């Protein structure tokens, strides 16, 4: 479960996030939607610990991330896998090597890496493309590899930051279906950050609308979409 409470992030005098309260239940797919400049990326970077909040708390599986430092913080980072816009794969590494990278950084034994890379390639339907470089893959295939890399350290939360931006409707649909399947099979909690209401409608159980750093509305997707 993710529990965000009173989260504020300021750069100088500017509050980019202002008192965010958001709860995502275990195994839920929740979405944060909002226009450009609303604060979505900043929220994503606070949740995956690339940035520290100015105040407030972010609790994942009972642990307050904002209170951690040092080794505990490094351990907590494994709990949240991120899928980035345009996948952000390393160009000089194959699909398999990109997926293996987070495990290599953590010192996972090579035999275990091989097993998990094979399992992840299969889960995202990329076993046949294991030795392809990113330039040899379509946008949708790159994003499949990005999802597998996001899951490499077996996180309890998968954060998707504009993962389908730039994909055509069919590729978008396929990625959203894959995320739903992963939630169903692995029980991973998924938080989707997007500017596209269509993405929210087709995948999320719960949605929060972000505008100017504040959540202006949140609830079950059917209710919020009807009102907006
Ligand atoms: P979104 O992802 O919804 O487009 P962002 O989180 O990228 O929104 O940005 C929200 C606001 O915060 C914007 O006005 C942006 O200019 C500002 N902002 C983001 N990062 C920084 C930063 N490092 N320093 C100063 N302002 C920032
Ligand atoms: P390296 O020379 O960096 O080991 P490889 O491409 O051989 O490069 O492998 C990268 C990682 O991915 C290794 O941990 C390897 O075991 C794993 N791997 C590579 N191809 C496959 C595959 N088809 N199935 C399962 N694991 C694979």
Attribute tags:
228 residues, alpha/beta, 4-stranded antiparallel sheet, binds adenosine-5'-diphosphate
In the predicted model, the low-confidence regions spanning at least 5 consecutive residues are none
Oligomer: single chain
SSE order, one letter for each helix or strand? EEEHEEHEHHHEHEHEEH
**Which strand order spans the largest sheet, edge to edge or round the barrel?**
6-7-8-3-9-10
GO molecular function: ATP binding; ATP hydrolysis activity
Protein name: ATP-binding cassette domain-containing protein
Family: Belongs to the ABC transporter superfamily.
Keywords: Amino-acid transport, ATP-binding, Cell membrane, Membrane, Nucleotide-binding, Translocase, Transport
Can you walk through the features of this model?
There is one protein chain. The chain has helices at residues 40-47, 70-77, 95-105, 110-123, 139-150, 169-186, 197-203, 221-227, and strands spanning 2-11, 14-24, 29-33, 55-60, 63-64, 80-83, 157-161, 189-194, 206-211, 214-220. It has 228 residues and is α/β, with parallel strands linked by helices. The strands form 2 sheets. The chain has a 6-stranded mixed β-sheet, with helices on both faces. It has a 4-stranded antiparallel β-sheet with strand order 2-1-4-5, covered by helices on one side. α3 packs across α4 (110-123), α3 packs parallel to α5 (139-150) and α5 (139-150) runs parallel beside α6. The radius of gyration is 17 Å and the shape is globular. The relative contact order is 0.20. The mean pLDDT is 94. The structure holds adenosine-5'-diphosphate (ADP) (2 copies). One adenosine-5'-diphosphate binds next to α3 and α4. Residues 2-228 form the ABC transporter domain. One of its GO terms (molecular function) is ATP hydrolysis activity. Keywords: Amino-acid transport, ATP-binding, Cell membrane, Membrane, Nucleotide-binding, Translocase, Transport.
